[in-house]
């Protein structure tokens, strides 16, 4: 896939696949998120912050042991669009090192905090053979808008090939934990199959010819992905 694109935000939609993703962990609410996923036999993908991994390595090992892929979300949840290349490299490599020290595979997926990135970010990811994973649906659960609002946003934005963004780390995530069962139940009734991001990439990859990615925050010129 890296031969034709640098990022994923949505699959082609050929299948009714949908990927649940969780950012900013591991944290105090991660075990509750894992319990819901286990109860409903749903896979997910986690994007971990390196400093949080260092505090709770057992949790990322548990995620990995359950078959959940773990991606890189920088060492300190950095705003990459306003950082120079050296600082960005340190943020990306720092999180990767923390994950490896925790005993999980080196990350091949990367999600930029705040959706902030620039050309330097893409160059670093390309050099490390990492794919940037954005999202189709932002539930905005980071702002704690209420359980019902999180449910509504997830369900209203769902579509075949979608990547849904939620959070298991950072501040209190009780609303996310409460919303998750309902999201799973309704999407299943609608005929969706839950997959990890790697499964989505295999079964329903992003289309060829998609435009270069645009940052959701920050600024910077973004060239076309390098050809291999």
Provide structural commentary.
This protein is of the alpha/beta class and 228 residues long. The protein has one domain: TIM Barrel, CATH 3.20.20.370. Helix content is 38%, strand content 15%. The strands form 2 sheets. Strands 2, 3, 4, 7, 8 and 9 form a 6-stranded parallel β-sheet that branches. A 3-stranded parallel β-sheet has the order 1-6-5, with helices on one face. α1 packs parallel to α7 (174-189), α4 packs across α5 (119-127) and α6 (147-157) runs parallel beside α7. It is globular. The model is unreliable at 218-228 (pLDDT under 50).
Features:
three-stranded parallel beta sheet; 228 residues; 9 strands; alpha/beta; TIM Barrel
Task: Give the topology, please.
Layout: E1 7-8, E2 17-25, H1 30-40, E3 45-48, H2 50-55, H3 57-65, E4 70-72, H4 85-101, E5 109-110, H5 119-127, E6 131-133, E7 137-138, H6 147-157, E8 162-167, H7 174-189, E9 193-195, H8 197-203
Parallel strand pairs: 1-6, 2-3, 2-8, 2-9, 3-4, 5-6, 7-8
Helix pairs in contact: 1-7, 4-5, 6-7
